[in-house]
Amino acid sequence: MAVVGIDLGTTASIIACVKDGVPFAVPVNGNITTPSVVGYADGEVVVGREAIINSDKDSAVFSVKRAMGSEKKFFGRKSVEVSADILSYLKKNAEENLGNKIDSAVITVPAHFSDLQRVATKQAASIAGIKVLRLINEPTAAAIAFGLDKRSSGIFAVYDFGGGTFDFSVLRLLDGIFQVLATGGDNHLGGDDIDNAILDYNLKICKIDVTHEENSAKLTAKFLKENLQDLLEIKINYTDNCEFRLSHKVLKELSQQFIQKSLLIADQVLKDARIKVGDLGGIVMVGGMTKLKIVKDEVKNHFRANIFDDINPEEAVALGAAIYADSLVSKSSNMLLIDVISLTLGVETLGGGVDKIIHRNTPIPIVEQREYTTYQDNQTGIMFHVVQGERPVASECRSLARFELSGIPPMPAGIPRVLVKFSVDVNGLLSISAQEQKTGLTQTIVVDPSSGLSNEEIVAILKKAMAKRNEDSIQARNITVKIESERMIKFWESIINEIPSSEQEIAKSELVLLKKALKFEQYSDAIDHKKTLENIFGQFLDDIINSHLSGKQLLQIC
What is the value of pTM for the model shown? Predict the structure, then answer.
């Protein structure tokens, strides 16, 4: 059994593993990164690059991570189910590559993720058949990947500017102990916002009306941003009458507000941690947006601190998660992570106020308790409303749960004593208990988002998965190989003319052999031919996607 680290990203996801002490990103269909895109056309579930090519705005889900823990649905599916499809895809393909079953994983989440979002992430993993060893914050994982655990001591910051989220964390390191001093972020700040700005800029010039949900337009804007690099300007025909373009000057103007917003968040986190910029031993750069020169330059100018960017910023989080997962299982490291509460936890009080029980940036695990009583004579129950947030009014905070301690014997107001205990575990998940001290009457809950799947829905999904596991393993494998191969054959045949001619003849021959193996139920041979085809097509998929994104061939690169 293998243990892995998974970066379940907003725009792309990565799975990593440790072998012989060396962490590496596991290729999925020939690629390190898998777009966090799921297509649901014609009753089929397709994930990643295939979903981008074969799906459109009417059948594909992009950036589902931004909706984790919410009630929003996508084609009748909750965000946790869509995320489970991504995790299942990563797990299955990584298992084929590793030649070993994946038993458990450390999964990363944004440092500012709420309890609802963390629970939803664990639910998604459970549905995908993955045991979660730990949820750890993405900045902490990145710090591990950059080898900060090998340093004796110091204070470091992690600047994580991804496709859909931004995080900034300050960590103190002492003899292998990571202590998060403060963290902050924005669940709706990332490269997607810059892509939208580039799109709006070009649509205004072209004088055409296209929404941000129009995937081809949005992804063309993303293509311009990612391929500008050292060029003076890049241009692409979007339609016959519309040319999308981008220069460094325009990119700087369009991205400036988002970069500045990230720096304001970073300044507040430093203030919360009571750390001066001069105290920092360096800043770890994480996330796809930190590849942009303009982002690196702004961070350097703002902090005047050392920049750590010698690891691919897109892989760093997954690699760090894999290193930590390996250390948990092998017990080969003295590494200790001490994370903090990202948002204050409390209960609504009479009149709609908030009694804050565990404050933001409190180290976890943590247990805090508070005593409450009744406010009316002969009151036999107390309703507790658990909220999360920094606002003093409950209605302005995020509602986590409501539960009632009932059956209290009738007594005068103020006589019953109810002890409420808040317990946050190492994953940042909250358990709550309420006990009436005189009678011993107790009510205990683990906060579970009402906006996520109900217990009945989770049980139904897990039962279905268990039923499939109980089937004959060989028959299940054969069915999977047959279904996946037939689907991939259609996909490969649709793009075979877009790969180099030197590879086409090999691919055509392998397709014939794969079809023959399926026809005569020679599934071991089918698996071999399928892997060969994945390797052939995998190396050209990104170029094919770029071609599809523009809708036209590349017009001009200056």
Answer: 0.73
